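Q: A small favour: would you put together sequence and structure tokens for a protein?
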Amino acid sequence: MVTNNQTPSPAGPPYITLEDVARWPAPGTNIPSAIAFSPDDRLVTYLFSPDDDLRQQLFAFDPQTGREMPLVMPPGGGATEDNVSLEEALRRERQRQAGLGVTQYAWAEQVDRLLVPLPDGLYVQDGATAPLRKVIPAAGAPRLDPQLSPDGQWMAYVQDAELYVAPATGVPATGVPGKQLTTGARGSGKTHGLAEYIAQEEMGRSHGFWWSRDSRRLAFAEVDETHIPVYRIVHQGKDQVGEGAQEDHRYPFAGQPNARVRLGVVSVEGGEPVWLDLGNDADIYLARVSWLPSGQVVAQIENRAQTALDLVRFDPQNGAHTRLLLETSAVWINLHHIFKPLEAPQHGGAFIWASERSGFRHLYLYARDGELIRPLTAGEWMVDGLAGVDEAAGLVYFTATRETPTESHLYVVPLAGGEPRRISAEPGTHGVMIDHACRRYVDVYQSLQQPPKVTLRSLADGTQLATLYDRRDPRIDRLHLEPPELISLQNRAGVPLYGLIYRPPAVYGPGPYPTLVYVYGGPHAQLVVNAWGPTASLRAQYLRQAGYLVFVLDNRGSARRGLAFEAAIQGHLGEVEVEDQVDGVRWLAAQGLADPARVGIYGWSYGGYMAALSLARAPETFKIAVAGAPVTAWDGYDTHYTERYMGSPQSNPQGYAASSVMAHVDRLSGKLLLIHGLIDENVHFRHTARLVNALIHARKAYQLLVFPDERHMPRRLADRVYMEEQMRDFILSNL
């Protein structure tokens, strides 16, 4: 057994160490993030770490001069893993946020004013040259989800379950920084203005309040979770016990009650809220909320079964509502963020909407009353996002998979209808941010061969105007990173699948090789992309340099292939996904690449579920598995995610039983390593504990690695290094 941290490779120097594998950010991935244009389009702002670590500062790039300047270097270093509140730490988990220092900022929509939340208070900066000033100091309960009003005059936030506003220009003469707008939630178990767990984790909605366009009112969600039983998480690794060493969560398990949500509107002057009529069915999801230019509120309301989505317009004066459209699906509704009201008078209140009614997400133009005017895009490909609308020119900009589902490009289509035209040129993945005037865009371009680079380009033809970031991380060459090979194959049903192959160095010969499958396998995710991320996947690169072939395959059910491709998993998770992974291994063996007697699999979260389940359901294919934070029984996961694919445990008991890892442990014959954080509030440690009980009952051997102070993903560097060491030793000993 190898006991040091170096690659046991006869190919030469041990280029990659386990410290390299565990270090964040990965090589080439420390790039500008949270990119935005200032309200006047004069500056491009972004978060970036000049020290190539997780500690970010706020920078601005001036396209006129080509000069980069620091805007905010946080006093006291900004956010760390230790100085944020529990509430903020949980929000960071929901947003998969790892950055430290300055972790968020926002421009006011209409004026040159920035909001910068830091652990010691809420700060405002009036443009690039003004000093950073603390408007509201940290005191008492944390101030959550602060947001500037569009006119920049007000700041709203939630404190101790209630919604507040405060002047963004400074503390008023009274000395009281904020005015409470809502009442009745504090102490009752309810919240006003916060997104519930389900909305943050599964629905892509991180906000629980929304400013009106005129900055005079706020729509807000009232969330009542008092009827949901408490799920207690004990910090078993702490020295103390009791209040400081436990967390109580209202976790909505599949088939059990959800939070009850109401939507209200309140004036910045205070007073009684107007409650909007969300319909007679109390068991719904409030998916999205926004304001129209006309001063009306629009909400997207999804039914519990996630087969219907209402787009509803509300009068904020009396709460009356009008349905604009209803989306239905025999499979499920995939929520999105594509709702764009047109503001120019000549468009008469029309709006752009995205739908998967054709089986693929496309753009549609609707009249103000919800009458369909025309589809804007069509075909067997997916619109990823709406990048911008130039109303004066009648042009709609969007990103999509038109050429291939492994890439993303920028396109433009006439609002009046016509054929889309591609703007981005280089093959790979393009992330796009368009300026307010629809003249320029920031292009974050990357591919398997190209680390991300950030350029400013003309929206008319994609011509490069300036370079914001194009630096080669020296670790790329030092660690001898080689891009994986992008391949395609057909599964047993004749469906084409995409994969990535990391071949060992030539010194190991032509194969067949011991093989490790890296898997996620779940819906709403895609691993096989022509982007830099797979090349910077250092665990795969480490194993490749150690002589293992590493293989990644996007099975049926994964994202960006259309609704029919996703729907193959409906009602029976863990069946076709495992079949496809087995087909991928068989394809590798037929090419002379994989040694069928030496194949393992590893993954995290849904990938942990897939790793453990594949070992049990396909013991003839997989000999070892590393399962990190696995879901092991879907009745133990949350409502919105699980019921979308499985229905409820009451309506689909056979599906839930068959999809559980525990139902298949009797067939397990390979080696299994389970890894889990004891304070994981997303996939509870209970999942691994239930599997361990089943393994004991079946008298099956297993290894268990726990992290008492970690949640869903280990955040501490020492914990990550130790985890990589244990994984490496397990793989080398058993494969």
Summary: The radius of gyration is 26 Å. Residues 1-11 have pLDDT under 50 and may be disordered.
